[in-house]
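S1.2 Input.
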Amino acid sequence: MQEGKNRLIEKFGKEYGTYFSILSLIASSKTSRSKIESILERNISGHLARLENDYHIIKSIKPIGSKKNSKTQKYEISDNFLAFWFRFIYKY
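S1.3 Output.
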């Protein structure tokens, strides 16, 4: 388990704590940007973009039933192992 954690820390650099917090919140069903920002009390749009586009760890999804032109989006961890790890192991 430590090897995986160390590789993520190496990948994320000095801001790994913020990335870990974001991923932990997404894994625990806090999937909207506004909800995550309210908990972390900071703007995370750049972090979400990097997690999605550079690292390919999360993906944005449009909620079922949202209006066609709505900008509402939720995030989910695209890797099952990381989703499990951040939900059940990381916080303990």
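S1.4 Remarks. Residues 27 and 87 are 5 Å apart (CA to CA).
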